[in-house]
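Milestone M4 deliverable, item 7.
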Amino acid sequence: MDLTVVAYVVYLLISVALTVWVARTLSRNGKVFLADVLKGNEKLAEAVNHLLVVGFYLVNLGFVALYLRNADGVADARELLEALSVKVGVVLLVLGIMHLGNVWVLSRIRRRGAMEHRQTHPVPPRGWAPPTGPGPWAAPAPGPRQ
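Output delivered:
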């Protein structure tokens, strides 16, 4: 069997296994985070979590498939290991970047929700009071007219 084909098979096995492991880990541990971001709405958190996992699989497995080809071919065991280390290393970097991107987006959503929560008044306003005291906004004090 050609060593290039062996490199392809080993690369696919490692990359697909890593992608599945990372997706399952993110899905399992992301449920709690999503529930917090979505203010305890468990059903919505589960749906968003599932959508994120599907998108994660599509992007990463698509990248793995596109990155499969080796232009030079593999002649010996050393080139096989070198080609595999480069390919698997790039896949790991892409997986890490995807993970950081997801966490960044979710943290932005969480931060925005926390800011909206802080801006909510504990008691709704009941009316408006005109400004008082000295300053350009205050009405002039009544006095003798000239």
